[in-house]
């Protein structure tokens, strides 16, 4: 089948009915509490759940009452403590056995298959900029070649001989290579 035939067939697909409204279950099941995080380890080999659990418990400082479940090729992290939940989300990215753990909060109005794990926040250091170019506006310009800017930190108060840098927290697409640098127009 050639691509034009496939496009024509796709264009003929329609939804035959109007959207329907479904009631909301006010008593969420145990699988989805307000403190649930969906995750996926980005790797080509299968992982051992008990090993992952040990690694994350240690990395996350043994959060009390944490339950880890598997569902539809995803990991569900169900927290009992709001402080632990926010600590894990705010301190991303996480690595497990040399592989990236993409995580995202799971909101009650979103189906598990709709949780977007194709991006993840990373801290990126930008070195070699002249001090007068380390501005928030320039961080926004740099962000356009890397991902979506979440936060900016500057290290302007350096001693002579130390490299000044700008630290950006950027939401990066996991399927795309991260650029190693850029040319600065002078």
TrEMBL record:
Tell me where in this chain the DUF4283 domain is found: 36-113
Q: Which domain of life is it from?
A: Eukaryota
Read off the Pfam families from this record.
DUF4283
Source organism per UniProt: Escallonia herrerae
The identity of this protein, by name, is DUF4283 domain-containing protein
InterPro entries membership: At4g02000-like, DUF4283
